[in-house]
Amino acid sequence: MKKIQLIIALCASTLMLAQDNNTTSYTTNRPDGHAPISVMGDHTHNKGEWMVSYRFSTTTMEDLRRANDDVTNESVLLPNGGDYMVTPTEMPMNMHMIGAMYAPTDRLTLMAMGMYMDMTMDHLTAMGGMFTTESSGFGDLSVSAMYKFIDTDSHKWHAQIGLSIPTGTIDNKDVTPASMGNEVILPYPMQIGSGTYDAITAVTYLGQSDYFSWGSQLRGVFRTGENENDYRLGNQLGWNNWIAYRATNWLSVSGRLQGLIQGGIRGANPDLNPAMVITADTSNSGYDALNAGFGFNIYAPELLKGARLGFEYALPLQQNLNGVQLKNQDVITVGLQYSF
Ligand SMILES: [Cu+2]
């Protein structure tokens, strides 16, 4: 009797698994149909569909790290054998992103995205003083096309190619203790735009079963030329992988793992003195990181009429910084998406 029960249990579980793998086709019409909210260009649309989205993210950078080792704020300053007059100690950064998508055909989806950023940077000087600078403004505008080239039962692939237009300012200024009341140009991390035309390329794979959705995206941002302030931000290469579990018809929970290589700045703004503050020294730019994200998506078509809400908390598991820089502590992203 025990054996028969075991065989029945095995057959039942195999049937359930088989059923789980036999979804007819990938659908975005469920909470896990979209990737975690921090992933850009994760999905395409069907012919004639529009989507508008708003995302807010807040990033906290705090405490210093040299390559793989944490260092104290004081250790990088001149009186303690360091190289700099000033170090940043903390930098909170807020980003508002507005996006629009439209699909002229089932295979082609067009996307435009703009953003507004504000940030503050707290500093410690060699004399033991503290001060804060602030910066805000509209960022670069990106336009891109996504082309779905494979769409089989529950598996989809699409490629993205886009252009980032340098609409964001690279001349943000503020007063510092050394500027005698004048507004002076702020270091690289306090600038909003890249100042260059940048190419955006990505390839995304999506898969789905009855209770799970998963995906993988390789994304590159490649800068061209040099901006008006004689420098170019580093290229960026990221590999995002995620899986989401559809807990209910309206709620999914997700986990994400991302490898990120951020190149350093080439060239230098002649108006910045690299010995003054570590953020004005381009050798302190670029990093490698391994990031993890945990989030949820809410999608209730009857209640919310095509709207979705996404949330994600992300933090670095590892970060290897070039030179000495502020560490990334965490990133919180929330977003609303509305399709019609
Ligand atoms: Cu969309």
TrEMBL record:
Keywords: Signal. Residues 1-18 form the signal peptide. This is Alpha amylase. It comes from Nonlabens ulvanivorans (Persicivirga ulvanivorans). The lineage of its organism: Bacteria, Pseudomonadati, Bacteroidota, Flavobacteriia, Flavobacteriales.
